Amino acid sequence: MTIWKEYLLANSLKQAFQYLESSNHMTCWVAGGTDLMLEVQQGRHTLVDRMVDLNTIPQLGVLEVQGDDLLIGAGVPVSRIATSEIVKEHARAVSEATRLIGGPQVRNVATLGGNVAHALPAADGMISLVAMDAIAIIAQQEGIEEQPILNLFKGPGISSLTKNQIILQFRIKQREKGEGSAFQRIMRPQGVALPILNLAVWVKREDDMVLDIRVAFGPSGPVPSRATSVEETLRGKHLTPAGMDAALAAIATTVNFRTSKNRATAEYRHQIARQLFMKTFSSAWERAGS
Amino acid sequence: MKDLVEIKFTVNGKQAVISVAPGEMLSDVLRYKLGLFGTKIGCNEAECGACTVVIDGQAVLSCNYPAAKANGKNIVTIEGLAEESLKGDTKLHPLQHAFIEHGAVQCGFCIPGQIMTSYALLQKNPAPQVPEIKEALKDTLCRCAGYPSIISAIQAASEQIQGGQDLYIPQIPEARNAGKMVGTVHNRPDAVLKVTGKAIYSDDIQLDGMAHARVKRAMVPAAIVEAIGISKALAIPGVLAILTAADLPFEKNHGLIIKDWPVMVAIGEKVRYVGDALAIVAAETREIASEALLAIEVKLRRIDAVVDPVSAQKAGAPEVHAGGNLLKHIKVRKGDMDEGFQISDVVIENTFFTNPNDHAFLEPECSIARLTPEGRIEIYVGSQIPYDDREQVARVLGVPDERVRIIGQLIGGGFGGKEDIAGQIHAALLAQVTGRPVKLLFDRQESLIVHPKRHATQISVKLGSDLEGNLIAAQTTLFGDTGAYASLGEKVMTRATTHSSGPYEIENVRADCYAMYTNNPPAGAFRGFGVLQSAFAVESMMDTLAQKLEIDPIELRKKNVLKVGSITNTGQLLKESVGLSECIQKVESALKQLAGEYPFLPRQNADHPEMVRAWGFAVAYKNTGLGGGAPDKAGAEIELLIDGIFEVRSASAELGQGLPTVLQLIAAEELKQGLENVRVLLSDTDLTPDGGPTTASRQTYVTGNAVRYAAKTLQQSLISELSECYDISPAEIVFGKGNVQIGSVSWSLADISIKLREDGIIPKVLYTYEAPETKPLGQGGDMHVAFSFAAQAAQVEVNRATGEVSVLHVIAANDVGFAINPLGLKGQVEGGILMGIGHTLTENFILDHGEVVTDRLASYRIPSITYTPEITSFIVEHPTTDGPFGAKGVGEIVLIPTIPAITNAVYNAVGVRVTSLPIDQEIVLREINKQKILV
Question: Do B108 and B198 contact (CB within 8 A), yes or no?
């Protein structure tokens, strides 16, 4: 079966939009395409006539510190992100998450742009970007706009991005003194190759005071979200065993884990979330202190 | 809008300009447009890594990489690594050389991907540590699981590249009584082809005018076929033929023992599982054939399905076949059960569950059929039983067997999963009707849905012993899910039953097994052949008994194990070759050296108190050969060719296990030759005599013997011919490497061969070896010609906070009789342990009311290199008189104790008794939490 009619390589944003406009047919942007190709090959994707590959557009290939920000191009292969010293310095959670996406060969092709646009509720890279409070820089024919990453999701696998939008980069604030982040996940060896639970934590501290914190669990709902109640139990307070207990209690009562058949029950997710949180938080906390 | 796009790229240093069709992936272009067949397709879903190529220095999966995207890129494939000199000599890349020397090459199908992934790793990280190697190769799967050898090969290649010194070659122990050839370490004859990507598997064959076939499957587990409409599909341009059951010329069913499996299900007949064939299509391309499948209109009326063996037995259960759901009730009876349990001081009982498993050989099934100008049918296929394929194809075509020729190809893993018919008959039917060569290749999803699985079982075990731990009575009840068709179900479940009280001598034994038909995919042969399931049950019970009696689990086994002079539960007196005690002793002493006097106590990690480690122990035995009264024979032919090479011929399958080396070594030993003078030709029904099925760990024994006797006979007849010819005493005729000394004159073997032919003598011998007679179950006496034995200890680490389990170290000892091919044996041992770990931790073939949930490699997970534990292996050799040089089977015994050794270790670590496979970390955690022990 012909799974698409045209696969076009766009060398510039202008060309990409031209390709979009010149076709009356179903057009699909392709970043790394590792998930997308599988969906198309296995008949799990709506029919596509024209694939437009965005990888060689210069803006999508950026990986640099610019002013106060770290910019990660939406088309940078995640293996490059995972081994980048600047990402490790400024967004350790992203560094750790990208190291775990797919397998080694997939990481040489897959991108964070695709990871986010695919809009799965527990994508490792995306969850780490949520905890880093990343801003997506989005191009459309009318110009560039910026959106907080959490605005990009409508439902499981449904992005709020429209046809004429292309994510160019993700902008993350440079790490300042007292800040640290971490990403960890728990898998099961059988069944679907998705994490049972993943977690990214970003924290800003001064001595034992939690100045600010961001926590993102995946999957914890149809769209990614921050565990704000958990954050509130810790934010602005000294870190104490009682405070940690309160945070764990908040996970139990406010984070919405579901049962997914052949993967994990909600009950199991709640049980392992405790350990995952303690480990990931400690890791971020230590980094914030160094 | 244009359909074809021209792209340019560099491949292996050469420029290529290619027109790319819509939807084409890079692997398609490399394989079918550039003829670079070294890049393999194992899954076509970006899971297995066999298609890995290096693009601009990065390892990439070519099956998932749009060809159009390769424009301007620089690509290296497996064909680009070795350097060819002008003279045509091949200089292997150090990785290729190291993979051969370290024994990392077995079936070879994954090897191009392994080497390309490793090549990319070494480009970036010239001296990788083991964790880095494991991380880089995490998604490049090897089902033969030569992972330990792959790791050591990469390290050796890295050292060689870095230091420029000679390649480090590991010292692999020879057999205890090694001969000049047998028992010594040699590389595989096909290794160079496999590491250079030149090895040809069925799907790599391209014939002129070849059409492509696909099969319309029922995709529901139980239904009546009401209508099949093919007219719309036939009208699609490029569709050449569509056949249904109505077109079958003769026999309607196939099957290895019982012909109960419809070639296609006819209108009005029953669909019995999701993989049942309804129609077959041949078309100009695979894409067109796939479109035609969608256009075939099928009307199925769903009927009630029976989906587990216990409910299949209940009154009123839907009948899968007329005559009921019981395939076979298998019984073992010894002694008096009532008395046995009555006099026991301790009686324990428990029930265990095992899931189906898929072989997940990395090469999906592929058959190519062709009509010869003489009107015969030739089938190119990787099959474990070529002569059975021939018979089954011939029956359906309604022709004599001789009109069909099976030409066996390299097999990319089998493990029992390539014994039943896959596409052979369908391809033959379509070749006959279209007059064109027809290729029928399964995709991975089809492979997972269609071919027979490992039997899911429910096994209850009741053991009685005295206070000292002497077993007095064992009663087992087994239910085996044999799925929709018989396949080898009866044989598999018989093996499960007879081995269900373990390798122990027990006075009173009763076993009842119900092999039941269901509407699940058929279950058949799979390495371990039923014994794996019952060993899990009984070995778990032995540890439970040891705990109850407060006896060391190793001591408990020592008290009861089979020894020379023991009588098995089927009434067989073991006269020799019972090395189990030595296996236990070897593992025990290594274990105590590593872990001290109390290896079975849990050890908590001081820094991470949730992490607990412990060892577990298990033993096993497994028959060699068919046994049970089945005539077990193999033919082998040896001819001295005019180039002075002895060609050994047998239709016995090489699945990666190393049979060609075994046969080569045996022939070379007997004929006093080096390997360079012996060549092996396998699995061509026109050219090689029937070696019988490659199953039941029997080829080394049965075909090995056939080759040994053929070689002896050939040598004797050559000596007598030469003696007459030269009028010289036979004592003065001495064979040497490549020559024969006749009196004072040395002749090359080539000259001898030519001379004999000139005299009208073809220097060739055919020998059919018949294994010693065995008795059917229930008659006592020798049910099997030999048994292999093994003991294993496994160390696990359990995370008490998540229930996660990992296996850190396995100590194994296997009694193989005699280690004919030590390098191949190493691969079997390592691969067996990894497969055992897979069955325990990663592999769960999930069915939902007869439908396959795990229909992709992404969901049916086989172990990756990251699961590789440290392995300590001992080879124990208690020879069996009738085996070649004392050898018995090894293919299956290696993985049987792994599962209970791991689950016993989990119990020792955290007190959770695993009764269902694979280990579910969620259940482990739930059980841990019930214990109310705080971390």
Answer: no
> What is the distance between the alpha carbons of residues B611 and A232, in angstroms, rounded to a whole number?
31
Q: How many Cα atoms are found within 13 Å in the side-chain-facing hemisphere of B661?
A: 26
User: What are the beta bridge partners of residue B798?
Assistant: B612, B805
Which two structure tokens, joined as six digits, stand for B237?
């341009």
Residue A227 DSSP label: -
- pLDDT tier at A259 (50, 70, 90 boundaries)? very high
B892 pLDDT more than 70: yes
Chain B nearest-CA residue for A99: B135
CB-closest option in A186, A262, A265 to B846 = A262
Paired residues of A223 in beta bridges: none
From the CA of A118, how many Å to the nearest CA of chain B? 17
Cα B381 to Cα B394: distance, rounded to the nearest angstrom: 15
DSSP string, B241-282: EEEEGGG--S--EE-SSS--EESSPPTTSEE-STT-EEEEEE
Q: State the Cα angle at B75 between B71 and B81, rounded to 5°.
A: 165
Q: Is residue B29 a contact partner of residue B18, using CB atoms and an 8 Å limit?
A: yes
Confidence of residue B1 (pLDDT cuts 50, 70, 90): very low
Instruction: Answer whether B805's CB lies under 8 Å from B798's CB.
Output: yes
Nearest to B832 by CA among B463, B505, B527, B430: B527
pLDDT digits (tens, 9 = 90+) for B144-202: 999 999 999 999 999 999 998 899 999 999 999 999 999 999 999 999 999 999 999 99
Residue A139, both tokens: 């191009």
Residue B291 touches partner A, C-beta closer than 8 Å = yes
pLDDT at residue B147, as a whole number: 98
Contact check, Cβ <8 Å, B58/A79: yes
Asked whether the beta carbons of residue B61 and residue A109 sit closer than 8 angstroms, the reply is yes
**Nearest CA-CA distance, residue B497 and chain A, Å:** 28
A-B contacts at Cβ under 8 angstroms: 134
Average pLDDT over residues B481-501: 98
Task: Report chain A residues whose CB lies below 8 A from the CB of B926.
Answer: 268
Instruction: Residue B198: name the closest of B317, B80, B319 by CA.
Output: B80
Question: pLDDT over 90 for what percent of chain B?
Answer: 98
CA-closest candidate to residue B852, choices B450, B413, B437, B285: B450
- Whether this model's ipTM surpasses 0.85 comes out as yes
Whether B933 shows a pLDDT value over 80: the answer reads: no
Whether A41 contacts chain B with CB within 8 A: yes
What are the pLDDT digits (tens) for B382-441?
999 999 999 999 999 999 999 999 999 999 999 999 999 999 999 999 999 999 999 999
B132 part of contact set with chain A, CB < 8 Å:
no
Distance from CA of A206 to the nearest CA of B (A): 26
What integer best gives the mean pLDDT of chain B?
97
Beta carbons of B109 and B413 less than 8 angstroms apart: yes
Is B214 an interface residue toward A (CB < 8 Å)? no
